[in-house]
C-alpha cells in the first residue's frame, strides 16, 4: 500500500515553527502538541533556523547584522541631534526660542527710545 503524505500550508508550518521556538519546546514535545510527526516538525524548525523556511525569511546572522547597522545609524542620528541642539544656543548662551527673540527685540526697542 502506498502511504499518503500530508500537505501542510505555509502558514501552518510557520505557526508550528513559531510555537516551538517562542515557547522553547523540544521537537518531540512540539510535535505531540501539534499532532505532527517529529521528523516533519524537526525539518521545519531546522529550515527556519537556517533561514530556508519560507521565501523572504532571513537567518539569525542577517538579522543580527541588521540590528548592528540600525544601532550605528541611531547613534549617528543622536550625535547629529545633539550637534543641532548645541547649534541653537546663541552667543549669549540662550536658546533661540521665539520668546527669547521677542524679548530681545523688546529690549532693543526700549533702549533705542531711551537713547533718543
UniProtKB/TrEMBL annotation:
The keyword Coiled coil applies. It comes from Escherichia coli O104:H4 (strain 2011C-3493). Pfam families: HTH_Tnp_1. InterPro entries: Homeodomain-like_sf (IPR009057), Transposase_8 (IPR002514), WH-like_DNA-bd_sf (IPR036388). Keywords: Coiled coil. Belongs to the transposase 8 family. SUPFAM superfamilies: Homeodomain-like. One of its GO terms (biological process) is DNA transposition. Residues 60-87 form a coiled coil. This is Transposase. GO terms for molecular function: DNA binding; transposase activity.
